[in-house]
Design goal:
With about 120 residues, the chain is of the alpha+beta class. The protein contains two helices and five strands, in the order αβββαββ.
Length: about 120
């Protein structure tokens, strides 16, 4: 997608601080980190949201999940981490290219949702 910032990162048109890359996925540090460790894992194939994923995307989605743990440990998250996939407007998705946030550090992260 020509106007997708993450597709531009995949294509090398926009620089990123890469954590990992292979033929299917790219992981890079978030530009506005919410925790001491905060990186994103994206499929190189443009999938707008998790709701748009199809059965043929199962392998790349599985790879994202498996690599989350390995990459989190490499980044120093040895006592746990959080994964978040925001989906659509209600899920507060900001970039419409499927992405998984991986957050961690040396202290507990606090509640995911604050009840009002």
């Amino acid at each position: 997608m020509s106007d997708c910032i993450f597709c531009k990162i995949v294509a090398g048109e926009i620089p990123s601080r890469k954590v990992y890359e292979d033929e299917d996925i790219l992981a890079f540090h978030d530009i506005r980190p919410s925790a001491p460790v905060h990186f994103l894992i994206i499929p190189k194939k443009h999938i707008a949201t998790l709701a748009d994923a199809r059965p043929e995307d199962s392998a790349v989605l599985g790879k994202m999940m498996v690599m989350a743990g390995e990459l989190a440990r490499q980044q120093g998250c040895n006592d746990g981490f959080r994964t978040i996939i925001n989906t659509g407007r209600v899920g507060c998705q900001e970039v419409y290219h499927l992405h998984m946030h991986v957050l961690g550090g040396d202290k507990p992260l606090g509640p995911i949702v604050i009840k009002s």
